[in-house]
Design the sequence.
């Protein structure tokens, strides 16, 4: 029985890692698309200085926002779990 629980735990860890990787890939794709549309007016062989600055600032803002939303969501989940433990109710 302990062996089955270990395998289940390992499977859960692998699934969580795959979900995290998929989320990171989706975030990178969205950030690239959004910042390219915002900053690159005439695609060419190289970025000029203003395009480079725009891309850098856009990516920084996108990542800051992503981190804020992730922290806020994580905090909410923790509050809900604590609430559930105290009330014995289900998560909403």
Sequence:
């Amino acid at each position: 029985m302990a062996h089955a629980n270990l395998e289940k735990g390992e499977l859960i860890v692998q699934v969580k890692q795959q979900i995290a990787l998929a989320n990171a890939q989706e975030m990178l794709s969205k950030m690239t698309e959004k910042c390219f549309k915002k900053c690159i007016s005439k695609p060419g062989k190289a970025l000029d200085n203003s395009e480079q600055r725009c891309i850098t600032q856009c990516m920084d803002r996108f990542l800051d926002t992503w981190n804020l939303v992730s922290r806020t969501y994580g905090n909410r989940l923790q509050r809900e779990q604590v609430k559930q433990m105290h009330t014995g109710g289900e998560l909403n």
